Amino acid sequence: MNKAVFIDRDGVVNSDQGHYYIYRVEDFIFNPDIEASLSLLKEAGYKTILITNQGGVAKGEYNTEAVEKLHDFMQFHLKGQNAEFDAIYYCPHHDSVSSCECRKPKPGMIIKAIQELNIDPDQSFLIGDSKRDIEAGKAAGLKACFKVKKNTSIFKEANEIISINSQ
């Protein structure tokens, strides 16, 4: 089985400062050390999996093509630094429009990834910047979840994850 780190997007991978929804390439700014953090996790044998709520799709603010274009841009940049995500899962739903099992704090995206990518939750972690991220990780049975301050580096947490599983 594989070990993985599930990572939230807005506020963790990229800055969400000044924008409620990030869906345009020109608004996407990587947070400090994200490339080094992802590369470090990958070198330690972790699959890196992006999980992100994109409720603006359900609300008609933008469409799935915009989300995928942004993810393509992000992956292209990260690939040049051996830091691209192994998989990306996003929830296009919003509670104000319809219900689903994938929108965090529900664990649907994480459970789907666990099943599809043969991931061992007992060796896997989550890094997020909100209570809903942490709740989703706990509900999916991950080993540990790290709540970080928005728009900051996750390098410390990446190192901590590696040291936890090497004990």
TrEMBL record:
Entry keyword Hydrolase: yes
Please state the protein's primary subcellular location.
cytoplasm
* EC number(s) on file: 3.1.3.-
User: Which SUPFAM superfamilies does the record cross-reference, listed alphabetically?
Assistant: HAD-like
Q: Which domain of life is it from?
A: Bacteria
Subcellular location per UniProt equals:
Cytoplasm
Any idea which positions bind Mg(2+)?
8, 10, 129
Cofactor(s) this protein requires: Zn(2+); Mg(2+)
Query: What keywords would UniProt list here?
Result: Carbohydrate metabolism, Cytoplasm, Hydrolase, Magnesium, Metal-binding, Zinc
GO cellular component terms, A-Z:
cytoplasm
Which InterPro entries does the entry link to? HAD-like_sf, HAD-SF_hydro_IA, HAD-SF_hydro_IIIA, HAD_sf, Heptose_bisP_phosphatase, Histidinol-phos
Which residues carry out catalysis?
8 (nucleophile), 10 (proton donor)
> Which residues of this protein are annotated with the site description Contributes to substrate recognition?
103
Q: Which family does it belong to?
A: Belongs to the gmhB family.
Quote the protein name from its UniProt record: D,D-heptose 1,7-bisphosphate phosphatase
Look up and give the organism this protein is from. Saccharicrinis fermentans DSM 9555 = JCM 21142
